[in-house]
Amino acid sequence: MVKTMPQAIDLLITGVDVVTFDDPGTVVLGGAIAIKGSTIAWIGPVSETSQFIAADTIPACAAAWRNSTRSSSIAMTGRSPDWKTPCAN
Predict the structure, then answer these.
(1) Is CATH 1.20.1250.20 what the domain over 7-75 is classified as, yes or no?
(2) What is the pLDDT of residue 74?
């Protein structure tokens, strides 16, 4: 088994429900989003996030991000006053 080095990313947002605009209309519940620079680098299950080393990791309820250059956006409600603190359900 070949082990690959984790990829460095700027931000990992966890606990997200994602509906994509790809052809099959992929839906990821309770997943994660990896962001590098101003690009969404990856969307998938939290169980696969060990492939990344994130400069910051935040829960979805504390995130709001917009990337107008690629017409993609991430916006979650329920912002925590202290984004490092886990959000209440």
Answers:
(1) no
(2) 53
